[in-house]
Structures are given as C-alpha cells and as structure tokens.
Design a protein that fits this description.
about 240 residues, three-stranded antiparallel beta sheet, elongated, alpha+beta, about 45% helix, about 25% strand, 6 helices, single chain
Amino acid sequence: MTNNDTIDLENNNVESNSTPSMTADVETSSAPTNTHESQYDENLKKKRKLTSPAWEHFKKMKVGGVMKAICDHCHKHLGVESKNGTRHLLDHIDVCPMIKQKDTRQMLLKANSSSDGKCASLDTYHFNPEVSRYELGRMIVLHEYPLSIVEHEGFRRYSNSLQPLFKVPSRNTIRNDIFKMFEAKKHKLQRVLESNSSRVAITTDMWTASNQKRGYMAITDHFIDNYWVLRDRIMR
C-alpha cells in the first residue's frame, strides 16, 4: 500500500466520523428552542387575567385534557375557549337552579334625588333586564335613533360598562319590542276615547322629511277629559 492510499483512507475516516457529530449538534440545538417557545406560551397564558364578572361564579379546571369552566354552585361543566367569550357563562348564572335570583343579580344602590337636585336618600334595587329593554326601545323612539344603534360597538361597550348582566338585544328584537309598545299604547288610547263623554276634534299635519324626501301625515285628536283637562293624542 502506498502513502497516497493511506492518506485517502484517513480522509474517509475523518469525513465519516464528522457527519454524525454535526447531526447530533443540530438535533440537540433544536430542543431548547421548542422548550423556550412552550415556556413563552405558558407565561402568556399565566399573564392573562380573568376580568369578567362571570368568574366570580366559575373556576377553570382541566377535565379529560380539555379546559372547562365549572360552576361553583351546580358544578356544571361549560366550554372555556377564548373564542366563545363569557356570555354563555353569564347566561348560565341567570338560570342556575342553585343560585337564588336575589343573589344572582347584583344589589346596587339607587340615589333618590330631592326637588333641588341633591341626593336625598339611597335605596337598594335589583337589576331587571326587561325594564332596561323597555327603556332602550323608548329611548330609540323618543330621540328617533336608528335601530342599528344596538349593533354599534361603542354602544355595546357603554352598556356593558354600566351593567355587564344586560344583554343588548339585536336590531330585529328591539324592533319587535317597539311594535309591542305601539300596540299597547294604541289599545290604551282606544279605551280612553271609549270612556270619554266629550266631543273629539281631529286635525291633520303634513310635512316632508328633509333626509328622505318623503311626505308624511299625522292625525291628532283633541278632547277634554272628565277632569276638564285638554288632551291631545296622535292617532296615526
């Protein structure tokens, strides 16, 4: 065997020995990267705070490898994915059989103002979502707000800041509520006119809306009630 053959064999041994060491270095260097990423994700999850009032009645636990929200009162398991939000948790609080209604709705203080505008006394009251829905529909009619106001993000955030338990209705729901208010007012006016013993004067008023270029006509009745007070009501 010549000297050149010996050199070639040594070079082949060096190359074959160096290849596994490079592969091992690559594999070992990738492991810390994955570890750091998992630790970073866990740190992010730990930093997230549970700010919703629903978490006063729920706690997070892993059930079968899946994170669930468990009710502190009836121990029901609900989904806790971030995309679901906490609205379903708040809805469960309203219907949970183990929570009394007076405990579910936060007891607040209501200030009763005197004639001079100053706070005269403080009373407690319970939140009633039906009253809030009625007042919302009345506000839309009174100020001629568009029905789409209930879908505005700013309005929803404002309502949630005042009372998180109040579920802002959709546009179709508030429209149905307004029609129900109209029917109730119409039947009430019919009963008033039927019980009235005086004559009724009817007037009309016509105008054109500047923003819609459409004509409107209102029919108003005027009468004196049984207490000799002049009244007027819009009939249509």
